[in-house]
Automatic annotation (TrEMBL):
GO BP: 'de novo' pyrimidine nucleobase biosynthetic process; 'de novo' UMP biosynthetic process
Domain Orotidine 5'-phosphate decarboxylase: 16-236
Gene Ontology MF: a single term: orotidine-5'-phosphate decarboxylase activity
Binding partners and assembly: Homodimer.
SUPFAM superfamilies documented for this protein: Ribulose-phoshate binding barrel (SSF51366)
Reaction catalysed by this enzyme: orotidine 5'-phosphate + H(+) = UMP + CO2
Function of the protein: Catalyzes the decarboxylation of orotidine 5'-monophosphate (OMP) to uridine 5'-monophosphate (UMP).
Catalytic residues (positions): D71, K73, D76
Family statement drawn from the similarity comment of this UniProt entry: Belongs to the OMP decarboxylase family. Type 1 subfamily.
Protein encoded by which gene: pyrF
UniProt pathway annotation: Pyrimidine metabolism; UMP biosynthesis via de novo pathway; UMP from orotate: step 2/2
Protein name according to UniProt: Orotidine 5'-phosphate decarboxylase
Gene3D superfamilies, per the entry: Aldolase class I
Pfam families: OMPdecase (PF00215)
Length: 243
């Protein structure tokens, strides 16, 4: 169990924003997080900073009361992914993900691994990375286009007992219609109007994404690299009618 976990249940942020903390160094990340409050947003820890800092960083963020999305996109044999999800649950993370292309048995094993917990993390399947275009999918032998591949994997994730998927907001309306309101849609590839897309290919603005059915908006560089990150977050909340 996480010895730093708050004794009282944490108050979940009313904001759908999950800030992606893609920093190379823990010191810079913690300086950034010091300006945030758990009521303002949730936080995402990805491969870069987790490789550098590991579980103690997660402990520090959960101890401050933040909901943490551990975005390590597990993709391995069922036993390995199930065991990793169980360890993530013991860390006290709010959400953890795995590639849905790992298949039904892998996702079912992950669900089973956390089934006995009173407060299991949300288990989320990554469908098609938001950085990928239809042309890039064709290069790896997936010729149906992103929308069809996302729906195929989202249906499988849902059938396998997962709580939701990572997809682009471009597919959100289609997935809500196919899989229902309660199946959570976590959407990176969020960009403010007229902003650069960087390496993302399937993008939407915050308000369009929410309107399309996204439950959570994962936003990294547009906030973390802004001249005034807090003002940018406030502007996003204003665009969403949350200010
Ligand atoms: O399909 C995916 C899955 C995960 N991500 C992650 O989200 C953030 C997005 O950061 P930006 O700076 O806003 O582009 C990043 O941590 C990715 O690893 C994704 O973009 N797409």
């Amino acid at each position: 169990m996480n010895p730093f976990a708050p004794a009282a249940p944490i108050a979940h942020s009313a904001s759908p924003v999950i800030v992606a903390l893609d920093f190379p160094a823990e010191k810079d990340l913690l300086e950034f997080v010091a300006r945030l409050e758990p009521g303002l947003c949730r936080l995402k820890i990805g491969k870069e900073i987790f490789t550098a800092s590991g579980r103690h960083l997660v402990d520090k963020l959960t101890a401050r009361g933040f909901d943490v999305f551990l975005d390590l996109k597990y993709h391995d044999i069922p036993n390995t992914v199930a065991s990793a999800c169980r360890v993530a649950a013991d860390l006290g993370v709010w959400m953890v993900d795995m590639h849905a292309s790992g298949g039904r048995r892998m996702m079912e094993a992950a669900r089973e691994a956390v089934a006995s917990l009173s407060q299991p993390p949300l288990l989320i399947g990554v469908t098609v990375l938001t950085s990928m275009s239809d042309a890039e999918l064709a290069e790896i032998g997936l010729n149906d286009g992103a929308a069809a591949q996302v729906e195929r994997l989202a249906r499988l994730a849902c059938d396998s007992g997962l709580d939701g998927v990572v997809c682009s907001a471009l597919e959100a309306a289609q997935l809500k219609a196919a899989l229902g309101e309660s199946f959570r849609l976590v959407t990176p590839g969020i960009r403010l109007a007229d902003a650069v897309a960087d390496d993302q290919r399937r993008v939407m603005t915050p308000s369009a994404a929410l309107q399309a059915g996204s439950d959570y908006l994962v936003i990294g560089r547009p906030i973390t690299r802004a001249a005034d990150p807090l003002a940018t977050l406030a502007a996003i909340h204003a665009e969403l009618g949350l200010a």
